[in-house]
Amino acid sequence: MKSGAMTLPSAKAQYLADALGQVRAEMKALKAREEALREALLEARANAPIQGERFVATIRRGTRRSFDAKSLPAAIRDDPRYWKETASCTVLIRERAGKAEREDDIVLVEPF
Question: What pTM was computed for the model?
């Protein structure tokens, strides 16, 4: 929690959990749509940029170099001198059983 953050009333915290879960569900749907559109662009096999009304899609091919830590000798991989530990905070959201939103549900969003 950020310094100076205050504890939220239970009802507001419940709203925040639902709002974050809804946003993540929308992001998942958008990511799936993005991947389908990306695949369609790649399948078009365009040799030049594809001009839309608002955007231009350019397909750039290349290679990237990455580090394969598994190829290091175990003596180095297992040596704590070569590891760095950092703290992190993760917010996990899962849909509650039996609480799935139906298509005819109305979602009210209130500012907080």
Answer: 0.61
> What are the structure tokens assigned to 57, written together?
């899609």
- Stretch (H or E) spanning 25: helix 10-43
Strands (DSSP E) found in 31-80: 50-51, 56-57
Residue-level pLDDT at 45: 86
Cβ atoms of 98 and 2 within 8 Å: the answer is no
Torsion of CA 74, 80, 81, 86, to 10 degrees: 130
Q: Compute the distance between CA of residue 38 and CA of residue 2 in angstroms, rounded to an integer.
A: 37
**Residue whose pair of structure tokens reads 């175990």 in the numeric block:** 74
Confidence of residue 95 (pLDDT cuts 50, 70, 90): confident
How high is the pLDDT of residue 13? 83
Taking alpha carbons only, the member of 23, 2, 73, 18 closest to residue 10 is 18
